[in-house]
């Protein structure tokens, strides 16, 4: 069987399974999630054995230490997968929720019902725990899944898939509800992202270059985020102590995350007050500061920020700083350089807060809070499959609701159009 | 200036205008809509003169009568455009609506704000009234628009654009909020649908081949519907008089519309009762019936339906009929042949109605009502830019809300992540 035929078979099986999933009740889906967790715990030794095959091959291929670390299945990560599935089982089921039922003048009763998207393709790099996490979220939201993990994790992913299949069987659901692509041929990805007849949406998880490539070539809709160039703007009317804490937290709480601040914007009227204080705080964490010309008049010993800096997601202890001339100048900078992920204003000025909230066009817009709150758990979604910087469909942290759609339902008593 | 450069200029101007529109209040947008209506009424003679140029050129080119009819701007159509804009002004403004504001354990207050998508590209055929309708809906929802109408309507569209620009100016809004592409070069479309930096979504309006071509080549997200192959299923437990009325109305109320029924599914247990009655009704309107083998045992004088019939949107007084073996068989047929637009079950059986509503995967799913109700006006949206058969973002009739997105907003009092 060639790759195209193989992938189309997976697609058709997923499409058929998605109908069974759309009929499955909440109890049945939760039963499957808990059964998969049990299977994963019971198979810990096998999972580690299969993972060792991947690790040995990876070392032979010369994978770097960071990649090998993400690839490794430790006891903690295996327990983490099982617990993650149990947490998903504990979340409310979004499927079937009916909203806004109301009568129209014609006498029909109209509303919207939340329904699964159908078949979701997940493309990710060599982190085997994503296999269980993604499968769990898709299963709970009533979607069939086709999982294509990095080729370096193929043995681990197949072993996890076996646990998933046993759990699905115990709950009376088709094993084709979750399918792992068992070939490492790259052509499989090319097929998956163009099977518009059987795949409803693609969720790529991984580095920017992977996601850009998939978005460029996909014919199926993609839910994605490319990068997080997040801004904190310290307004003329900011509480400076609050501003210092938020700007420090947004940068230093964690560096390698998409909701960390990459550029700090400071109003010119308070720059001389706040910047020296902040520079001292950042120095405690050895954060490299890069400033605009005006910034470097105040912080004389820092490097100059280049044009490129304003468009860079450092994911590292580096921060670019720009002094701006008021709210409009700050929003102009954000409009030009933001990736549309998350921006915060620190201000005590009511009108400024209202304008910032209304006019900044990002998936999360905040007043007086750290950008680090832009996160599925902090937003109460329970879990997230990613953070979307697209404007259509799911925007911001994508939880179970983001993996569903709403259809219109009409309850009539024989109405016809006149 | 070459086409690429021209289109990129339009795109950048639209992006800049979209920021002004996101700041515009409801009153200002309504003022613009009413001013445009006034300008259109005042310019009726000029509009007809310019439209005559298009009509004369169209006749010379040998356009068929139906196309020329759609191209013509009569007094009624001009008044219709003006009234349509005034109706849009009377609709509630979706922009800025905040929902689900609630406190999280961290103390942040989280909610969602409805915001414009940004820049919307509309590609349509030679119906000049679409220029005003589409511009009005986009303007009210706070979006900048780039309109690319059929080349046969270029003089009419430019004249309407001038009215729109005068109305925008009177309301103090940038004229670049609504731009008509002034070249008839086809390359302009190719540019428009790939300008991912400046265009947020494309809405194609027109025939299936136009929409298929645009969907295939677009890099910008597309809100579309390809066709409406709608089904009515008459269940074993149907009220037969109701079933007869709904099946007749769904087919015969209007033929050339996407929410008309194209295939009738009838449960085998009641086929012999209902089909002869229905055939009589359809005969009064000279509807051609095409049946499956079982249907032709009951209705002996009708043509056989071929495999192709089940996948055909007739948009004409033709109906294919299939006898099915119960609810599951009916849903299997719908699953295989529906375009995902609208399906109805006629039944008095509670369990059947519930399963049909939950399991049929179409943008509108109905019980005991004519498919003809799937419409923006009947659903109370006030107006629609189209009907989406996609599952992501807007699904079903797309009104003002479908032209907006929701962003997360966070109101804090200095919260940082711990």
Give the SSE order of chain A as H and E letters: HHHHHEEEHEHEHEHEHEHEHEEHEHEEEE
Spatially, the strands of the biggest sheet of chain A line up as 10-9-11-8-7-12-13
* Tally of DSSP β-strands of chain A: 16
Main structural class of chain A: alpha/beta
Tally of DSSP helical segments of chain A: 14
Biggest pleated-sheet summary of chain A: 7 strands, parallel
Q: How much strand content do the residues of chain A show?
A: 15-25%
Molecular structure report:
The structure is a homodimer of 418-residue chains. In chain A, 51% of the residues are buried. With 418 residues, chain A is of the alpha/beta class. The mean pLDDT of chain A is 95. In chain A, strand 3, helix 6 and strand 4 form a beta-alpha-beta unit. The radius of gyration of chain A is 24 Å and the shape is globular. Chain A has a seven-stranded parallel β-sheet with strand order 10-9-11-8-7-12-13. In chain A, strands 5-4-3-6 form a four-stranded parallel β-sheet, sandwiched between helices. In chain A, strands 1-2-16 form a three-stranded antiparallel β-sheet, with no helix packed on it. The longest helix of chain A has 21 residues. The first copy, chain A, is 43% helix and 21% strand. In chain A, helix 2 packs antiparallel against helix 5 and helix 6 packs parallel to helix 7. Chain A has 14 helices and 16 strands. At the A-B interface, helix 1, strand 2, helix 10, helix 14 and strand 13 of A face helix 1, strand 2, helix 10, helix 14 and strand 13 of B. Strand 16 of chain A pairs parallel with strand 13 of chain B.
């Amino acid at each position: 069987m060639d790759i195209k035929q193989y992938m189309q078979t997976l697609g058709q099986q997923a499409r058929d399974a998605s109908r069974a999933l759309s009929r499955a009740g909440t109890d049945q889906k939760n039963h499957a999630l808990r059964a998969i967790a049990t299977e994963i715990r019971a198979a810990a030794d096998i999972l580690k054995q299969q993972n060792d095959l991947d690790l040995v091959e990876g070392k032979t291929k010369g994978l770097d230490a960071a990649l090998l670390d993400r690839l490794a299945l430790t006891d903690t990560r295996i327990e983490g997968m099982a617990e993650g599935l149990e947490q998903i089982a504990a979340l409310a089921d979004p499927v079937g929720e009916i909203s806004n039922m109301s009568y129209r003048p014609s006498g029909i009763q109209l509303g919207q019902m939340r329904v699964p998207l159908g078949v979701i393709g997940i493309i990710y790099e060599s982190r085997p725990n994503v296999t269980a996490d993604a499968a769990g979220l898709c299963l709970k939201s009533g979607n069939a899944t086709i999982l294509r993990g990095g080729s370096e994790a193929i043995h681990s992913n197949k072993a996890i898939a076996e646990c998933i299949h046993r759990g699905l069987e115990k709950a009376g659901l088709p094993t084709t509800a979750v399918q792992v692509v068992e070939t490492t041929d790259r052509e499989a990805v090319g097929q998956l992202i163009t099977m518009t007849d059987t795949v409803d949406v693609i969720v790529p998880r991984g580095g920017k270059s992977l996601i850009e490539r998939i978005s460029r070539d996909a014919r199926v809709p993609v839910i994605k985020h490319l990068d997080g160039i997040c801004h904190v703007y310290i307004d003329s009317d900011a509480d400076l102590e609050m501003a210092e804490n938020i700007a420090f937290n947004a940068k230093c709480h964690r560096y390698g995350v998409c909701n960390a601040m990459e550029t700090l914007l400071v109003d010119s009227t308070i720059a001389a007050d706040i910047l020296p204080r902040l520079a001292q705080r950042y120095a405690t964490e050895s954060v490299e500061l890069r400033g605009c010309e005006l910034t470097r008049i105040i912080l004389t010993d820092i490097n100059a920020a280049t044009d490129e800096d304003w468009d860079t997601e450092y994911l590292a202890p580096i921060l670019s700083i720009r002094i701006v001339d008021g709210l409009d100048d700050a929003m102009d900078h954000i409009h030009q350089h933001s990736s549309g992920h998350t921006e915060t204003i620190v201000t005590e000025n009511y009108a400024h807060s209202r304008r910032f909230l209304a006019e900044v066009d990002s998936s999360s817009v905040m007043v007086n809070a750290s950008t680090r709150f832009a996160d599925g758990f902090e937003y109460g979604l329970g879990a997230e499959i990613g953070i979307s910087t697209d404007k259509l469909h799911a925007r911001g942290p994508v939880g179970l609701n983001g993996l569903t759609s709403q259809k219109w339902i009409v309850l009539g008593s024989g109405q016809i159009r006149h």
